[in-house]
Write a structure and sequence with these properties.
With 232 residues, the chain is α+β, with helices and mostly antiparallel strands. It has three domains: 3-94, no CATH class; 109-182, no CATH class; 184-232, no CATH class. 41% of the residues lie in helices and 18% in strands. A hairpin with a 2-residue loop joins strand 4 (29-31) and strand 5 (34-35). It is elongated and about 90 Å long. It binds zinc ion. Residues 194, 196-197, 201, 205, 208 line the site of zinc ion.
């Protein structure tokens, strides 16, 4: 359905179906027999509403009327295709897209590092969650603070060097996943395929793995990386 967009300050005020719209020879836009008006001043608005109510078109000032494009009353009016190409719409779309990309970028670097179990009956351990691309010193300081502040922490006294090992492992694992995500998808296998011995052994290898696990995926990924180097 073709629509007329009416926009003020880059914000869509309303959309009207083209079937209801008439554009008079003087360019003014009318919807269902009523002129499309733009008034921001409250007194003007009251006068315009009163005039429209009794269809006293002669009392309407020319600058209140709306025509296609930019109007002195501050409104912009145009058809869908014109609005799609309008700089305000293009900028708004780009801002939304940038927001989505920014959120994805934030989520992409979020990692959880398990630090310690906690006392009897409490199964939620102490873990650091955050941006794994941040400097080690900052992450270590935050991990120390979590260990010190947690109640009933089983291993509260961990050296910075011990924490650095945890952080390094977490970052390496994260990096492997990042690299894996960049690889093209590998072909899927049919029934009887075993991810353990990587043939259609149907269980003959004694360690049948019909479903791929993270361990298999990591190995396959490493193999494919090796292939890249061999083929070089
Ligand atoms: Zn097998």
């Amino acid at each position: 359905m073709k629509l007329l967009y009416v926009v003020r300050d880059g914000e869509v005020r309303f959309r009207l179906p083209a079937s209801n719209i008439e554009i008079k020879p003087d360019g003014t836009i009318w919807a269902a027999g009523i002129p499309l008006l733009g008034c921001t001043d409250p007194a003007d608005k009251a006068a315009a509403v009163a005039a429209v109510r009794c269809r006293a078109w002669a009392e309407l000032r020319d600058e209140w009327y709306t025509r296609l494009g930019d109007n002195p009353n501050g409104l912009w009016a145009g058809w869908d295709a014109d609005w799609d190409a309008h700089p305000a719409k293009v900028a708004a779309d780009a801002a939304v897209l940038a927001g989505v990309e920014a959120r994805k970028a934030v989520e992409r670097v979020q990692v959880e590092i398990y630090l310690s179990s906690r006392g009897w009956g409490d199964y939620s351990g102490v873990a650091w969650r955050g941006d794994i691309t941040r400097p080690d010193t900052e992450i270590i300081a935050e991990c120390q603070a979590l260990l010190a502040a947690g109640t009933d922490v089983d291993t509260p006294n961990q050296s910075d060097a011990q924490l650095l090992v945890r952080i390094s492992i977490a970052r390496a694992t994260w990096q492997v996943r990042q690299d894996a995500a960049k690889l093209p998808p590998r072909p899927r296998h049919g029934p009887g395929y075993c991810y353990n011995c990587e043939t259609y052994c149907d269980g003959d290898c004694g360690d049948f793995a019909p479903v791929e696990t993270a361990r298999h995926a990591m190995r396959a990924m490493r193999d494919s990386l090796d292939d890249d180097f061999v083929g070089d």
